[in-house]
Amino acid sequence: MMGSENADGFEETNLNAQREEMENLDLGVDGDAGGDDPLKKSVVNGDTSNSGYRSAMSTVSNVRDPLSPPPTVMIPADSDPLLAPPSSYEDFRSFGSKPISSDNSYIEPPSYADVIFSPFDENSDSEINGAEDSSLHSQFSDSLSRSPSSSSDYIKITVSNPQKEQETSNSIVGGNTYITYQITTRTNLPDFGGQSEFSVRRRFRDVVTLADRLAESYRGFCIPPRPDKSVVESQVMQKQEFVEQRRVALEKYLRRLSAHPVIRNSDELKAFLQVQGKLPLQLSTDVASRMLDGAVKLPKQLFGEGGASAVPVHEVVQPAKGGRDLLRLFKELRQSVSNDWGGAKPPVVEEDKEFLEKKEKMHDLEQQIINASQQAESLVKAQQDMGETMGELGLAFIKLTKFENEEAASNAQRIRANDMKNLATAAVKASRFYRELNSQTVKHLDTLHEYLGMMMAVQGAFADRSSALLTVQTLLSELPSLQARVEKLEAASSKVFGGDKSRIRKIEELKETIKVTEDAKNVAIREYERIKENNRSEVERLDKERRADFMNMMKGFVVNQVGYAEKMGNVWAKVAEETSQYDREKQSS
Amino acid sequence: MESTEQPRSISGSMQSPRSPSLQPYLSVSVTDPVKLGNGVQAYISYRVITKTNLPEYQGPEKIVIRRYSDFVWLRDRLFEKYKGIFIPPLPEKSAVEKFRFSAEFIEMRRAALDIFVNRIALHPELQHSEDLRTFLQADEETMDRFRFQETGIFKKPADLMQMFRDVQSKVSDAVLGKEKPVEETTAAYEKLKHYIFELENHLAEAQKHAYRLVKRHRELGQSLLDFGKAVKLLGACEGEPTGKAFSDLGTKSELLSIKLQKEAQQVLMNFEEPLKDYVRYVQSIKATIAERGTAFKQHCELAETTKLKEINLDKLMLTRSDKVGEAEIEYREIKAESEEATRRFERIVTRMEEEIVRFQEQKTEEMGVAFHQFAKGQARLACSIADAWKSLLPKLEASSAV
Questions:
Q1: How far apart are CA A514 and CA A518, in angstroms?
Q2: Over the stretch A453-464, which tens digit does the pLDDT of each residue have?
Q3: pTM (2 decimals)?
Q4: Which segments within A85-196 are labelled E, that is strand?
Q5: Closest CB to B202 among A143, A379, A400
Q6: Cβ within 8 Å of residue B198, ≥6 positions away
Q7: Are B267 and B108 in contact (CB under 8 A)?
Q8: Quick check: B379 and A558 CB within 8 A?
């Protein structure tokens, strides 16, 4: 859903022209608005980090006022996310935040209209207003931030300045071109060696590497998913739109990583953020070359004896899938099939009922988050449409007003023109309020989108656990068969007089294999337990964070709604006042 | 038959029914829509209740049953007989079949018909119309007879529009000097025509957006409902206290959805409908302008013909022809017709001047009311939205403190 398009098929150019007209109209006392933000003119599709979940909401949220600088404003990481950078709203005049008229019978003080984070409030002249603003700001700020140590340590990452670079190559054709991004980190964390601000240049491939290394090092953790690799032609890769989308996605990803209490201290992330020049992490190789390498090893494994068939202990701690060990892959696959289809219970069963329940719950939760985020999008669209139509209505009445005034041949016409003007002014104001309300709503409800990404991370963590368990099961099931072979050989060998040299040799090799396999099994079990514990603590942490974030989201959403509803109520109450002589309910019949 | 004496002003249904019976009053209401007939033949009938103390009417109260086409008959008759007066407009015949019998549509139509009749009853000239009396009093059979008689005689709207276009094109032709103008070209009248034309465009656009706004209210209401439901389901997945918070949020959202649907209906009835009525009124004025054009043309042509006949007569008199007698009779007839045409035209002009003043005042009043109700409705809606969400905040605060 392209959120910026009016469902009635209103031509975009027409709307644009109308908007400009609206902005340039002299609305009399209240002053006209300055340059407007093309809030809905963005064609950015949103980042692809959670493919398929982005649409209208991100379209609205990703637009920035072209007059504002790129988001490199330094804001403490835990501060209130609602605070918009002041510079974006320079052009708005103080509009709706005038102190409420005392004769307004609809709203009673204290009102949220005064303290809602509206761009108009930036220029509000009342000192009291300002003080109230900031005190309530900070009050909300505290309750909105969830980290206990809100201002003591922070890390803020920004991604900017995409540039085209060329691979150095000896070929005649020259190397491929690719895009690099500037990654700027501002932090006061001690781990970064006391540096407070530094930048590196990275390309997307480096991000993939980072993500893969983290996945290996932090099995069982809920690692935020990285932005998708996009399967598009190189021409599209260079398009501004795509580059911008990716920049935004990268920034979000890195910020999420740095928000994770454990991963933010990881060597991998540090290296990524700090080390100049080439990224000092082992490159991920593609699946094809891994398979090739594995294919080379396989015959030796199949036909060789002894140690070659045992899984090297250090590799046990990695899942089979990522590695080059085809034989291991094969064995674990066989094991998983026997788990699913075989009659016998695997030696170690996922007996943790709690885990299974949790997994189920997580799945349900994910479904509901998807649903809620879809409905949130619809809500955003409906608010947007309401604001648009209100604005168009106001504009139509403004034209009518001008017309009647020009053609006025009677007093009745002039009075009517004046009434219309009041209505039109209010409608235009209300329309602006809807737009602002909506851009704030998007920021709040975006939390739902964020957590869709985190659900994927949880799935990843659970998958780590499952694959570790599979490794354990595979190794466990190997041991009995190895034992059996040894016993058979020993029985056969004992029947031979003077010893059976070749059999004895085989027995010794097998015993060696058994020992290695035992060690591997123990390591695998330890690894599995470790991952289980990671799972548990991560899910606990995530649950807590998610709940806190959802609470904040709700509070922010509700406060926002209240504030703007009050503002709009004021505006309309004023018109009702101005047209009170037409109040037929009061007249005696 | 039109009354040529100064009409008494009759108070209409806007006045208190308890006003002293000495003062003449005529009060009408259109009520009780009932669906009659089956299938394609089905239609809505209304009860028209007349309360009056006028001698021309049978008794203090009369109730008759009328249907939409009876109202059309009345409008057409008045249009034909009271040229120059802006006949109050009727609501459109509904196009969409399934909408024809929806409760909303029926109510809107009933209200519009009520306004229609009352405007006639309040108009200083129209209120004395015999056709009005017929409409308000005749029994249903008589009414049916009248209605069937009149089809085909009076011009359909399409014809009126064609005439009006002719008027327009002739005006531009005159401006371009193409042919001898058979249209009024006084500056004041030109200005009026231009005003009416432009006004219709502006109003139509405003009404279009007002209608869309009604839709937006409904859409926002729907999305709040869906959002509320989704959020409640989400809450069911989360433990306390987040679950409860989501549940409260969802409930509030559903509540507000209902308020929005209600407001949508209010905006439709109290804001969009008056705007539509305004547009219809302007279209009625355009029809009157077309009539004036026709009358002017007739007046010019007959005046022209009379002059020719006079010249001819003089010529014949000079030559002492035996055709003089005939010619004289012809001349006198034509002259009478011409004077009648001129009188008709001038009456239209006078009426229109008064009507324009009435129209402007009436519209300022009616629009003022519409604006006021709209603003009040929006203010109330915004208020209740603010209150509803506000009431949630203490609960949210309490939940997050846990």
A1: 6
A2: 889 899 889 988
A3: 0.75
A4: 155-166, 177-187
A5: A400
A6: A403, A407
A7: no
A8: no
> Encoding tokens for residue B232?
């409640």
pLDDT at A83: 38
What residue type is assigned to position A458 of the chain?
A: V
- Whether residues A409 and B191 touch (CB distance < 8 A) is answered with yes
Query: Closest partner residue to B357 among A410, A419, A568, by Cβ?
Result: A410
Measured CA to CA, the distance from residue A115 to residue A118 in angstroms comes to 8
In the block, tokens 């407007």 appear at: A36
- In this structure, what token pair is assigned to residue A183? 């990654």
DSSP, residue by residue, A288-320: HHHHHHHHHHHHHHHH--GGGGSPPHHHHTS-T
**pLDDT tens string A411-421:** 889 999 999 99
List, as one string, the DSSP characters of B341-365.
Answer: HHHHHHHHHHHHHHHHHHHHHHHHH
H-run or E-run covering B295: helix B273-318
**Separation CA B205–CA A548 (nearest Å):** 48
- Do A582 and B368 count as a contact with CB atoms less than 8 A apart? yes
d(CA A142, nearest CA chain B) in Å? 12
Nearest CA in chain B to A8: B212
Cross-chain CB nearest to B396 (options A371, A403, A551): A551
Report the residue from A426, A548, A561 with minimal CB separation from B375: A426
d(CA A122, CA A91): 11
Chain B residues close to A426, C-beta within 8 Å: 375
Cβ-Cβ contacts under 8 Å for A439 (sequence gap 6 or more): A39, A60, A61
The tokens for B287 are: 């029809």
Taking CA atoms, A300 is separated from A305, A471, A479, A503, A521, in Å, by: 8, 21, 20, 21, 22
Per-residue confidence (pLDDT) for residue B97, from 0 to 100 = 60
- What is the share, in percent, of chain B residues with pLDDT greater than 70? 84
Cβ of residue A516 closer than 8 Å to a chain B Cβ = no
In this structure, the number of other CB atoms found within 10 A of the CB of residue A145 comes to 19
Question: Residues of B with CB below 8 A from A409's CB?
Answer: 191, 195
Report chain A residues whose CB lies below 8 A from the CB of B361. Answer: 410, 412
Quick: pLDDT tens for A363-385: 999 999 999 999 999 999 999 99
**How many C-beta atoms lie closer than 10 Å to residue B239's C-beta?**
11
Phi, psi of A198 (to 5 degrees): -155, 160
Residues 6+ apart with CB under 8 A from A488: none
